[in-house]
Here is the input.
Amino acid sequence: MLIPSIDLQEGRAVQLENGVELRIDGGDPVPWARRFGRIGEVAVIDLDAARGRGSNREVLRSLLPIARCRVGGGIRDLRTAIDWLDAGAEKVILGTAADPDLLSRLPRERVMAAVDARHGEVVDQGWQHGTGESLSKRIDRLRPFVGGFLVTFVEREGRLQGIDLEGVREVLRAADGVPVTVAGGVTTAEEVAILDRMGADAQVGMALYSGRLPPGDALWAMLRSDRPDGLVPTLVCDEGNEVLGLAWSDRESLNRALESGMGVYHSRRRGLWVKGATSGDHQDLLAVDLDCDRDALRFRVRQHGRGFCHRGTWTCFGTDRGLRALARRLRERVREAPEGSYTRRLVREPGLLEAKIREEAGELAGAGSPAEVAFEAADVIYFTLVAMARAGVSLEEVEAELDRRALRVTRRKGDAKPPPGGKE
Here is the structure.
């Protein structure tokens, strides 16, 4: 896969040549995180922290809710690594501090070791000092303790010179099945595809920022189609991954979708098709995923209006059901509830909703049989969704909060709080 890179220096997204000379000042990193986050995980590196010249901690933390971030730069001790994992980083990247003793105290699947090498020799101290250790030996030594390697070919970093294929093969042999991400020199879509077929991810910065490598081109190069027209089937899903329908993509539509952040497809009758351009039922593109065989796409979108189907239903398979359908209905009712309706009473009558939530939660706590638990849980969920709709909180926001909690390494005891005014 393609792993876009955001390097932070003095609060700004930058690209350096050979790790030293400023080539591109990308400004505010937030728009880059939103754009890159549609592709998958994003590597965010705090250059100032890495050099001991300050920190971009708050800027970096602001990116965590926007994109799935691999965080690196200045992580030299256990507490810092755990803090980033607790804050919601998908993975942490450790460089010079990546020794077996520290790594063994972290969750292996969420730790990457950054190994920087020049002409096969591991370098440190800002790439200025040769360690005398070979790249393959360093990887072999750390392999039992990490869930991935970030390997930077320093002599190619920021120079758009292309990848060192033989060097990559050596790294993959040494990694022996541990995932590898390659940085330094990746320039073209074809190189991203070659690495993908070899079993490595491509971390790219300069080529993306300079416009030399459109993200859609990189993803498209990894795909295969057995159709005469070259189109790729695209499964369209909402925020909860409910299937809305099937569409088709080509290279142009994929690039347009990623650039605009909208649902853009290829219609076999009309060509380029921007969903909702005429109907108003438009989409915000949240993420694009490639399947394991690289012959299909999944678009995860925020659907607006009546739904995805041209017949006015939420899905092309008919009306939707379940929690999301109820949450959408309640959002509409909160805005437009008629006088005298129960929803209007819950929203407008002081204290009613709060009292119902406490009442139903107590009944759920006392429920015994499976049927009773299901009945009372339905009441609790209904009134919870009303409270969320009143506050303008979506079900997806709650799910995102739960996902963030699942990433925490540090766990709370979870003891019950005493009742208001009560004693422990």
In short: The two ends are 52 Å apart (CA to CA). The mean pLDDT is 89. Residues 82 and 189 are 35 Å apart (CA to CA). Residues 2-222 form a domain with the TIM Barrel fold (CATH 3.20.20.70).
